[in-house]
Every structure is written in C-alpha cells, then in structure tokens.
Backbone:
C-alpha cells in the first residue's frame, strides 16, 4: 500500500534519508523542514500519514499536532523524538499522536507502524470490537474466541491477544516491538526471544487441525498474518 | 552476601573544628555534625575519617562521571551509528548490491547489536537520572510478578529451563510498572542465559515485614562465587563460564531499578545456585 507521507523534520540530512527509505517501501514522501510549512502543506493537500519530529523550529511538534487536531485534521501522526522517556511518549500521545517512535528509527519498523496507524483508523470507524475475518480464521475480540475453518481454537489469554494484533494488521508486518507494546504494554525489549516463543506456541494452536501455518516470519522485523 | 549501597549512605564523618570549618563551605560536611564529633574522637581519628570519607566521595564522583560519560557517549554515538546502519540498508536495496548483499546484511546485524547495547546503556542512564520517579504509582507487585512469569513462561520452557509457579504474597509498592516488569524479566532472563537446560527457577514474593517487599529469584544452577558477586553487578561485569554471554548489563540494570525505588539487591547462595534478593520499600 503506497502512502502519501508528510515528513516534518528540520534535520535536512535525516529528512532526506528518511524520504529515500520511505520511497523504497513504495510511499511518496513530501518533506517540510518546520512546523509552519507543514501547516501550509496539510492545508493544501491530503496526506495518508504524517511523520512528525517533536522538536522543530518556530512551531514545536506538540504545538503543531494540537493545532492540527483542533482544526479537525485527523490524519494519522507518528511522532518522532530523540528522547525515549515515557513522559515524552505520554505527552505526544495525549496531544493526539497515533504512535510514537524514538530516533534513530529503523525504517522497516517505521513502515510497519505507518501501516498500523492507517489501519487503526479503519477499526476506529468500524469499532475495535468488530469480528475479524482473515482467510479461514475468525477472531472475535468481544467473545475472546477464535475459530479456524469453523473449529474453535483453544488459546490462552496472551496467545489470543497476539492473534488479535496480527489479525488487525493482516497482510502487513507487525514488529516484535509493536507486539511488546500492544500485547504486554512494555516499553522495553527483553533480550530473550519472548515474542518468538509465543508466536511458536500460537502457530501450534492455529495448526491444531492440520491446516497450513498462517503466520509468516519477516526476518529481522516481526510477523505477518497472511491476509 | 553482597549488598549494593552508595558510600554516600555512610555515617557522616566526625572531624576537628578547623577541618570542619575548611570543608564545610565545600559542602563536604555539616559543620554542626563535625563540631560535635571532635569531642568524641579526637583529631587523629577524625583526620583518618575525613581522608577516608573524601576518598569515598571522590570515588563516588568518578563513578558518577563515568556513568554520565557512558550515557552521553551512547546517546551521541547512537544517532550517527543508526544513520550509517540505515544507509547500509539503502545500499543493500540497490540492485547493483546483489553480489555483496549477504555481507551488507551481516554488517547491518552487527550495527543492530551495537544499537541494542547503546539502548541498554541509555536505559540505565535514564534510571540513574531519577526522572522515572515521575511515573511512580501504586502497584500490585504480586500481580506484576505473575504477569512477568506468564510472559516468560513460553521462552523459559523452550530453553529447557523450568519455571516453578511463583509463590506470591499480595503486597503493594510505589513504583514504575515498566521498570519493575523489566527488573523481574531481567532476573529470569539472567538465569536462562547463564545456566544449563534443566535448571529450575523459583520466584517468591513476600512482605518480609511491614516496611519491605522481598522478591527472591533463585535457581539451582552453578551460582556465582562470593568473590565474583560484586563484579556481576558492575556494568560489563561479565563472569567466566555460565553459557551464552550478554553484555553484562542485565544485573546492573536490575540494581539501578532497585536503587531508584529506594531498595537494594543482594546476590547470595541458593545452595546450590544463585539467589537474588530484591528489597523494595512499601508505601
């Protein structure tokens, strides 16, 4: 899925590199070096998502975001910052950001998050509890149940949460970091492969009735439920 | 048993008045404390104490400086390293890079490992800075430890270790949920990384008295020799033997988290195995 991206970043080298990287993922980036030009660009044409540096000349990233939301610009925003402290993260999210990444960001991780935030808008419109259908899998967040080819799956609470996250992003990679944040609510990465171990367990449950493995491993990044 | 404690916690030194007067403006002592002291110890003993205290303070400052420099370096080097890593990623995507793509990916993996190391150092620096105290909230520690054990269970089982269902008394602490979770997970990961398959891991939580929550993570592996325990709490203090190695930052981070919460860490003998005891004050 190609996205029209607005990259708001005052560090020119970083903005250009990020733009090149996003092009490799098939997106069309536009760069704004400060909050004022970003504001003008947002007013002149639609974007699918905005990558917004937190600290900018003239208009700060937080102030720009608050102003956009106040003017009912609901474009998904991923806030970027050099600071990984949870206080900044909370401030960014409370100001209306959809997600938050710490610089330097891995472009593949950023790409996965861009897809996730644009997808998330769809759930918000449908309702986050909507039953999810992916191939022969049916996942009901409200009933805490899942079926494959009509047969009920026996999943533990955490395995179910992992499946919901993968199903919500079916066809798109979900990174290990995203799973740690969304399933376990952790802001750190354990050194052992905790996520991988859970995915292996989930795979066994999903293939209990002899069907193919629906989870694809994206090397060095995470996992994707085949859509 | 090794108890990690700052030398600043030592009883204030007791000094002759002229020395007190000289040192008080520099902030080394409280003049009043010192004045009382001379009477008790006499000049010679007081002088010995001041030298010791100043040496400890200087050692503390040097250690603080070293910690700060490490954090600053990690922060400053992380961005250019990440740019280099991302530039490599761009080059690797170029069709002309096909013959060397595998090697480029290897170099990228090495850069990723360095970035992970820097992240760990920055995490310790963040904890040491005290800024996370702003996130402190009332936490049901038993529930948090249970969640961490659930999180670890699949990976522990895969590694061939055995995680015994935790024995948890209900107890609340004031703390940072993320950091306390990381602390518990690090302790279990430490066992998985440094002991052989088949090792049992036990987690126990009790309110040892009204004032402290006592968290014990112990195993029946080879343990750490008493002489090596202090080094195990030092950054990069990797010990010989014990299976797959990390960067030697896991236990130092646990110690930093315990300190941030006003607590302590002790490495002891589980007879056989390592017994790590964390004490955290209750509200």
Residues:
């Amino acid at each position: 899925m190609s996205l029209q991206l607005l990259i708001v970043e005052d560090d020119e080298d970083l903005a250009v590199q990020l733009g090149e990287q996003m092009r490799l993922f098939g997106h069309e980036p536009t760069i704004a070096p400060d909050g004022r030009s970003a504001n003008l660009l947002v007013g002149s044409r639609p974007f699918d998502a905005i990558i917004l540096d937190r600290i900018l000349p003239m208009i700060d990233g937080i102030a720009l975001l608050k102003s956009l939301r106040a003017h009912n610009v609901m474009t998904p925003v991923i806030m970027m910052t050099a600071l990984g402290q949870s206080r900044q993260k909370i401030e960014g999210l409370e100001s209306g950001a959809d997600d938050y990444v710490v610089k330097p960001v891995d472009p593949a991780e950023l790409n996965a998050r861009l897809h996730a935030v644009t997808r998330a808008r769809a759930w918000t419109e449908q309702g986050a509890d909507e039953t999810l259908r992916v191939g022969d899998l049916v996942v009901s967040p409200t009933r805490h149940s899942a079926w494959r080819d009509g047969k009920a799956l026996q999943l533990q609470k955490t395995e179910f949460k992992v499946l919901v996250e993968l199903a919500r992003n079916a066809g798109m990679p979900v990174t290990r970091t995203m799973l740690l944040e969304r399933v376990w609510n952790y802001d750190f990465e354990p050194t052992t492969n905790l996520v991988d171990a859970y995915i292996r367990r989930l795979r066994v449950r999903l293939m209990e009735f002899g069907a193919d493995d629906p989870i694809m491993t994206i090397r060095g990044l995470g996992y994707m439920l085949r859509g | 048993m090794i108890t990690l404690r700052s030398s600043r916690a030592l009883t204030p030194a007791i000094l002759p008045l002229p020395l007190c007067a000289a040192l008080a403006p520099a902030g080394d002592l409280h003049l009043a404390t010192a004045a009382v002291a001379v009477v008790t110890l006499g000049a010679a003993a007081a002088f010995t104490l001041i030298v010791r205290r100043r040496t400890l303070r200087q050692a503390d400052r040097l250690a603080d400086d070293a910690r700060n420099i490490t954090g600053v370096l990690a922060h400053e080097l992380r961005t250019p390293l990440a740019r280099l890593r991302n530039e490599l990623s761009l080059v690797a995507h170029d069709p002309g890079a096909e013959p060397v793509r595998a090697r480029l990916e290897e170099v990228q993996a090495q850069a990723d490992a360095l970035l992970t190391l820097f992240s760990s150092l920055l995490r310790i620096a963040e904890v040491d800075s005290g800024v996370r105290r702003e996130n402190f909230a009332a936490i049901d520690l038993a529930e948090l430890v249970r969640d961490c054990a659930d999180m670890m269970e699949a990976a522990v089982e895969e590694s061939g270790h055995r995680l015994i269902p935790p024995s948890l008394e209900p107890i609340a602490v004031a703390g940072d949920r993320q950091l306390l979770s990381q602390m518990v997970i690090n302790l279990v990961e430490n066992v998985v990384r440094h002991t052989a398959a088949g090792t049992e891991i036990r987690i126990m939580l009790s309110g040892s008295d009204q004032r402290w929550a006592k968290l014990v993570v112990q195993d029946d592996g080879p343990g750490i020799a008493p002489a090596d325990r202090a080094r195990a709490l030092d950054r990069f203090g990797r010990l010989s033997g014990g299976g797959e190695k990390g960067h030697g930052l896991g236990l130092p981070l646990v110690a930093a988290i315990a300190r941030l919460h006003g607590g302590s860490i002790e490495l002891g003998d589980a007879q056989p195995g390592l017994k790590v005891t964390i004490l955290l004050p209750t509200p």
